[in-house]
Amino acid sequence: MTLRAALDDYKQHRGSETLFPGERRTTTGRFSGLAGRTLHVGRDGSLRDFSYPLTGRYGIDRSRFGVRIDGEVTWLDTVTASTQRYVGATALVETTFETEAFTLERLDVTLEDTHVTHVTVTEGEPDALAAFVSFAPGGRDERIGQLVYDEPGVVEVYHRDEHDFLASAPTFESVAGQLPERLADVLDGAPATYPNGGETGQYEDGRLGGYVLGFVPFDDGSATVVSQVTERPESAKVVAELSDQAARLDNEATLREIAPRIETGIDCQTVVDDLRVLSVLSSARGSRMAGPDFDPHFEYSGGYGYTWFRDDAEIARFLLETDAEFDLGLEPQHEHSAAFYADVQLEDGTWPHRVWPDDGTLAPGWANDRLGGEGIDYQADQSASVLSYLAAYAETSEKRRHEVEPVVERAIEGLDETLADDGLPIACQNAWENMAGRFVHTAATFLHAYASVARAPFDTDLREHSAEQARRVYEGLDTLWDTDRGIYALREHDGNLDTRLDSSSFALVDAHVAYAEIGPIEDERRERLRQHVDTTLEGLYRETDAVAGLIRFEGDDWRTRTQVDEKIWTVSTAWGANATAAFATFLEDESYYERSRELLGELLPDGSLCLENGYLPEQVFDDGTPDSATPLGWPHALRLATVAHLESVGELQTSISADDAEVLLE
């Protein structure tokens, strides 16, 4: 998102009670890419690339599509889309636009670095498809140039390394560069109008910017626009190939046949939806960004288009567990995750705050004291989460155990360095990245990691050492018990217990399930866990006329705008659903299955937290307005794992309605 685009959005949404001006939201529309170029197809017909973290290339910054009738263009963002959906289990997006003057059926699909938009007129007589596309090669909206190849009708927009191309079938009737907003336009209080068609009379007009406006004549009622995002290409070769490709793909049947597909082997709508989302967020090497980066200028957040090892490793572990239950054929993904973690591990055995998913290099972050300092700005739970995945991965084959054992040995050393004598991790940042202290969630991830390594088929000394460390953490948790509230405190800070409820403390359940395989859990600890889970579920639950679910923690005021109370978070709700399902199995208490299904129901299609496009946004306002990163990978992985767990114990459909069960499994 260029600064011009951000400022334009800021002008449009100043004063909104639920929208943050200057962001590029993805709470509506759908993504059409799988593992690589990730391109958003808006309900308004717009296209925008969110690919930079995954490919290192920016592509389309803004766009508008419309149809020309009798010389006048009707832009699709002035028309309400009748329907938009994924075609089956594919990444093909189908959108219908209907007015009194015309009806259009549109298909959008991303094939590696190429995106195809195919439009068919089913009613009316438009004579041309109008396409305005703003490219931002290298993330720039200045110091870029255009080349227009007249004979094949292809446009090339370039900065230095990145070159972006636009072609059509039939060939563009006309295509020309457009002037970007000048400084006076940027500073004007009104949003910009584009395409503007303006000229200054200078000879470089339309050749020194990324704005392109083209008209594609409808041939037998159809027209196709193709874009390709490349790096240092042989331009002449790309131009010829792209022109031919546009002609070849100007066919609805062809697009439906070649659209990338999610292959699951089972009939479960949410499984397909979750795997599609996780693929959308993945790079070619398998590492994932947390979510589409809606705030790249860090105006309201620290950005989302990066790989956090907490999110990524939790997702990887949930995929491993779900694959074991549903046999989804995800072996390459598991291997890619293990290889990625090995490649980017630091010398001290830990992992940094966050990295770029395409190449694993260090990304901007605020929690890298293990790299350049000795402070508390380090998130120890991230390294623990990676360890838990690698231990589970090692259990799947002898070959894999040999591959990851050296990585695990170094990681255990890193974990040991951040474990204090009392059995709790040293002071660091929390999972929500907004506090420092000694957190119950961090301790839970340490317990899970040590116990997972202790039960895996590693070297005997490594397993015995990990088992002893797990016992120390298990005992150290007593320090955080608060008798008055009957909970494990959120953190110990400056010698005091912070006894607010925190959804991340649900990690205690999985941690104790793992520990139970290597050591005894006393009745008193089981009862404390029961009290903690019950109190946390009750205290964090919120319900309004529009939504229901769990808030993140007591006193959470992030991104609340004018709302007084804490917002509901999908990851917290999904965490609660997953933890209670595991807790029910652990305690052999079926009442927790019921609680799991209740929370899961809010995350299923037709639930209050699941959007029409099947996505789970990070947060939701009380009036039901979704907010922040959408879709967010972590809650999708939690939903996937919860469905798999409940199905494995025969509890998935016991008390959800017949209609909900039909939606889930249709």
Index terms:
eight-stranded antiparallel beta sheet; alpha+beta; 36% helix; single chain; disordered C terminus; 20% strand; 29 strands; 666 residues; five-stranded antiparallel beta sheet
Tell me about this structure.
The protein is α+β, with helices and mostly antiparallel strands. The chain is about 35% helix and about 20% strand. It contains 19 helices and 29 strands. The strands form 8 sheets. Strands 6-7-8-9-16-13-12-11 form an 8-stranded antiparallel beta sheet, covered by helices on one side. Strands 5-4-10-15-14 form a 5-stranded antiparallel beta sheet, with no helix packed on it. Strands 19-20-23-24 form a 4-stranded antiparallel beta sheet. A hairpin with a 4-residue loop joins strand 11 and strand 12. The radius of gyration is 26 Å and the shape is elongated. The protein starts with a helix and ends with a helix.
